[in-house]
Amino acid sequence: MTRIRRPALQPLSIALMLGLSTSAWSQSAPSSPPAAPATPPASPAAKSPARAAQPASKDNADSPTQLDRVEVQGTSRDDDQRRASTASKIVIGREEIERYGDATIGEVLKRLPGVTTGGRPGRGGEIRMRGMGGGYTQILVNGERMPPGFSLDELPPEQIERIEVMRAPTAEFGARAIAGTINVVLREALQRRLNEVRLASTFERDHVTPHLSWTRNDKLDDGGAYNLTVNAMQHKRVDDIESFSVTRLFDPASGALQRQTLLQTLGQTRDERKSLNLTGRLQLRLDGGDTLAFQPFLMVNRGSGSSAAAQTQSPDLPAGDFERIKYDAYATDTTSRAAMARLNVQWNRRLGEHTRMETRIGAGRMTMDSASHREEDLSNSGLPFYRLQDDTTHSRDTQWSLNWKLTHQMDNEHSLVAGVEGEGTQRDQTRGCTEVDGRTLLSDNCAYLADFGDNVSASTRRLAVYAQDEWSVGKQWGFYAGLRWEAIQTDSSNNQGPVKNTSRVLTPLLHAVYKIDEKSREQIRASLTRSYKAPNLNDVIGRLSINSQYTCHPPDVVCGPNLINYPDRLGNPELKPELATGVEIGYEKYLSKGGLLSANFFYRRITDLIRSQAVLEPVPYSPVPRYVIRPRNIGNAKTYGVELEAKFRLDEYLADALPINVRSNLSLFDSSVDGIPGPDNRLDQQPRYTANLGADYRLRSIPLTLGASLNYTPSTLLQQSAQVLNEIDKKRVIDVSAMWTFSPAVAVRVAASNLLPLTYGNGSIATTPGRVVTSESTGRSFTVWTVRLELKV
Which residues pair with 617 in a beta bridge? Predict the structure, then answer.
């Protein structure tokens, strides 16, 4: 049975996080003043007010220091950028990315305040800020959106220079960020030499996954620099299939239970994937201080998989019954190929002593091919043969982008920025579908799909114009005002005719920061913004997908009815963009040893909320209405919450304690959707809270660094519609790592992710007149062990 209303709140975890944050907050400064640091932190007042628009300045080489000060300086540089930004921003540099030996970017991001990931631990999933799923978080790579189908999990951490998490939108990075923006910056051509090789292998469920990474960074004779990072990896995964649903039929008049049917599915899936990733940057110095940079990006993927499962239904229903399962077992084999190539060119030109122009041009293509062969045993439905279906899909996304930005520094502490952005994506997709029983062609199901457009051609064009002004008033006040206009148009054609969707949004943006002391050790932030979420391409042009449990088989001439928990799927070209008005208020205190205490409150009021809901509606491929799930504008919603963060060294508060770096955060969320009955009418996928606790320590006597972290997200009840209540299982992930540094050039790291794995599952209760369907699917998660050799030549 689905575990509805189980106690998911963990009082111990909450108490620990609150106690840690509160105790750190309430501590006073040490009774004796600390000794002056070996390298004093940079004074924010000495920085250019254009600091937010010129993040590359942080890449200048630092002066040599003692080895035991390197960690403090690295953390300080990240926090200096966070502190100097007028808009609320978190910066994660190379040191933090490498701290726990994570294999994917999602594992790095899950430890940040307010960031969650979907799916089972170790299996990747959508990255969300504020717990808001469904595309509310803007994901950028080098400030640009990637084509549909691209996942951040395709980027190994070795290729990442830093990660910028912006809690509120800005004019330069775009306002399609109701929850926030995550910008992943690839390796840059720094002014220091690096030649690093990493050999790693992960172990999961008796499967070995090798991984090779090489990074080369060097300077050119003319003052330029280059960077090259190559990653090759192989993944092997085996997962179990375990799901069941219980259907209860009631007498409409008396409400008495008439029949109860259990459907159970058990099986296994196997997946193997090989990938090669290459990123690089060539930066040339031109006359007059200009720079020209070329940044290629290449990704190649090959994969294969298989799945097989058997279904049992009890009691066994008579042939022809509407709710009788359509097959006893199925087996599927799949192959896939994907390749993406992209080149960005950036030209920075000085137009004067205080004026700079930046021009970026990008072009790329991503192709994906997949083929599947599915066999279903139809003996249970009264047909004495197998049903076979072969599907092949080829899609090609061609993308271009053009960005122009002008920055002007004024004498009165104003930094003016204006820009124009253009972007276009063309998607061409073809599909082949055949159904055979070994003797005759069964063209019914494939024919229905063909009627709705097996071949799709769609294009998306975006144009944006923005201007922003960032200025300082004295040494304690900083302000930011921005205005951005953006238009997106989607056009598509298939067998059903042309589809067109257009949205235009004007977004004003205001940010302010007040420095309680002139050294920016304490400051208060506030933001008032407008943001939006445009319908994505798949939501608009989504191709018809008839549910495999209730497809059309002979001797049926047309499709019959289906159930609400087995809906068909289709896009919606009539979608309007969601608009959100947001408020942010935050407090930050920077500690003397590189620590930080912060609290941030946010609020969003959303109009024209988009949600995918299953609705019974007439369809042209059936004489009776069928349940079809498609994205729809359902009304308004609001969400709010608070994000608490504490980072400090333990010896800063306990005189005799070891210098252990402690990192903790607790984020509390709440939301409500108008028109859906409560109390669980929350935004899609949003949990009630998420908590992180981590620590790392470098031993004094031996060159060993130890680290551990705990990530916890409770189970969540979500009222998807008036008829459907969903439950998402809790996640508890414990990671540990140990690194032995033999020399500055050689180190070995051993890490374990998801040390005490839990079973992870989802459930739902769907209620329609006279029928209640309870469904649940579960799957085990596993511990992933990693051994990595790091060599610096």
Answer: 626
Token code pair at residue 751: 């890490």
pLDDT tops 70 at residue 518: yes
d(CA 536, CA 577): 10
- Whats the size of the chain, residue-wise? 793
Q: Under 8 Å CB-to-CB from 231, ≥6 apart: which residues?
A: 156, 158, 159, 211, 212, 213, 275, 276, 277, 278
In the prediction, which pLDDT does 67 show?
A: 36
- Cβ–Cβ < 8 Å for 84, 54: no
CA distance 727 to 760: 11
Q: 216 is written with which tokens?
A: 């080369």
What is the Cα–Cα distance from 215 to 593, expressed in whole angstroms?
A: 31
The most distant pair of C-alpha atoms in the chain lies apart, rounded to whole Å, by 89
Pairing status of strand 578-590 against strand 626-649: unpaired
Element (H, E) at 15: helix 11-26
At 562, list the tokens: 């289906």
Q: Nearest-CA neighbor of 160 among 227, 234, 220?
A: 227
Q: Which of 65-79, 81-95, 362-376 has the lowest mean pLDDT?
A: 65-79
AA letter at 319: A
Residues 81 and 89 sit within 8 Å (Cβ to Cβ): yes
CA nearest neighbour of 257 among 266, 265, 248: 248
609 burial (CB, 10 Å; 0-12 / 13-18 / 19+) is buried
Instruction: Answer whether 289's CB lies under 8 Å from 342's CB.
Output: no
* CA angle in degrees (0–180, nearest 5) for 431-432-438: 155
Q: Is a pLDDT exceeding 50 seen at residue 18?
A: no
How deeply is 786 buried, as exposed, middle or buried, from its count of CB atoms within 10 A (0-12, 13-18, 19+)?
buried
Write the DSSP symbol of residue 703.
S
Query: Across residues 17-40, what is the average pLDDT?
Result: 37
Q: Cα–Cα distances in Å, from 257 out to 249, 251, 313, 770?
A: 6, 6, 18, 9
- Token code pair at residue 167: 């809690």
One-letter amino acid at 111 equals R
Residue-wise pLDDT tens digits, 389-419:
888 889 899 999 999 999 999 887 889 999 9
**283-331: pLDDT as tens digits:** 998 888 899 999 999 999 999 999 999 988 888 777 667 777 777 889 9
- The SS3 assignment for 169 reads coil
pTM: 0.82
